[in-house]
Amino acid sequence: MAECRIIQSPRRLAGGLQRADGKALSLSQPLMQMNPPVLQLALPDTLEDTPLERWSIGDQIEAGQPLFTTQEGITQACPRTATVESVGTGKTLSGSPTPCRLLNLTVVDPDPPRQPSLTPLPANPDGRTLRQRAADAGIVGLGGGGFPAHLKWQHRLHTLIVNGAECEPFLTADEQTMRLRAPAIWDAVVALMSALSLQRCVLVLEDNKPEALAALQAAYPSVLDAQDVCITVIQSQYPSGAERQLIWLALGLEIATTTSPVEHGIVVHNPVTLAALADALHGYPLTDRIVTVTGPSIVTPGTFQTPLGTPIDLLLSQAGGLRPGHHNVFHGGPYTGWPISNTAAGVRATTACLYAAPVVSQTPSPCIRCGACAEVCPVHLQPQQLFAALTHDQLDEALHVGLSQCLECGACDVVCPSNLSLTKTFQDGIQDHQLQQAEKQRADRARTRFEARNQRLLKRSEADETRRAVRRERSGSALDRIRAARAEETH
Questions:
Q1: What is the CATH number of domain 363-491?
Q2: Residue ranges of the domains in the chain?
Q3: Which pTM value belongs to this model?
Q4: How confident is the model over 463-485, as pLDDT tens digits?
Q5: Angle at which helices 173-180 and 210-219 pack, to 10 degrees?
Q6: How far apart are the C-alpha atoms of 275 and 273, rounded to whole Å?
Q7: Which of 56, 101, 295, 338 could make a disulfide contact with 43, Cβ separation 3.0–4.6 Å?
Q8: Cα(24)–Cα(124) distance, rounded to whole angstroms?
Q9: Are strands 32-33 and 100-109 parallel, antiparallel or unpaired?
Q10: What is the C-alpha to C-alpha distance for residues 287 and 3, in angstroms, rounded to an integer?
Q11: 438 CB-near residues (< 8 Å, 6+ apart)
Q12: For residues 463 and 373, what is the distance between their CA atoms, to the nearest angstrom?
């Protein structure tokens, strides 16, 4: 019988938080299936100028058939057999205040028998085939990043890390997936290691997930016996699941913020992403995901197998609704989530959790320089210095003291006795810096185009002058010949 090596990581995360995780709230219930009557999918902005949409108003789209393809090559399949009702404009769950186009669907068959809509791949597909399948099936990072998986696989890679840490309190979508779909996760690992010629795989778990560990051990396939594969158990601590922190805990390798893991040959995937990839190998595109609905304001917390586009209102109702009183509903967990202002919006591929908690009014007071925020910062920043610089509009100073290294994990907010919105301030600063960089890039492109135009005009002018000089020379030579001929006639 195959048996995966279990390794206890000797490394510990610097800083961070160790708090009651609240995961039992949603894991106490079995996984439930959502069958919504309507769906709302956000259309990428890039589709406005590209003919990549595959429907018209009034069309009936079968479950699993393509709806649209993004410019990155990701195809979104229709989650259920549905009729295209309208295209509107509104806010989505992306966290952006900018409205986008929304595709509204009325579900015809809410609970159809599952049928593959793509041709199942043969065993051990090559890298090119696997990348194309991931794009056709809509596989993106389901841990929250949403980055197209097939683009990560274009790099020269040697190590796969499966991020099963799920360190943020209350979140359980990853753990539920590992408990219920461990064979699918290993199937995806086998396919990736073969197709991308990977040398090793490390599946990382926090030590508060014994049921998930047992399920992964029981499902471990013998085909991986000859490979360098292990499960590494790390201490339960937030934010150990952040990508660079996870790599250090698992491999002892530090990745600078100026580079990405794939540049070092390391690809990190979430277990939910791998389960979706395993489905894609058998012909099933990404149409559903597990969503945790939890928090102190939820009547019956749980995990739900949810079609993409399911309205948030329906998910909350399925979880018993909100308790009496005033509550905030967050997209994400208690530390990294953002408030949802439009609960009619549909679930996205990156919606791992909906967290609801009572509204707490806290009045901020001046920073007392206690240093608690610095003690919990996992990347050794001085949040009080960052906050002071940004509140005085000193973005360059904030960048100098490490703003670009901030994980936006929210640990400093949790321990701040002055109730300062540290993370929100840092997020705004990072966004301002990104806007400045984008504006600089636009200016650089404009300057490059201007200089290129001047060079073209100069070359054209020089070419015209050369042609004129040639014509003048030819004309002068012809006149000289005519004069010489006339002179000879005169004599």
A1: 1.10.1060
A2: 363-491
A3: 0.86
A4: 888 888 888 877 777 777 777 77
A5: 30
A6: 5
A7: 101
A8: 38
A9: unpaired
A10: 33
A11: none
A12: 66
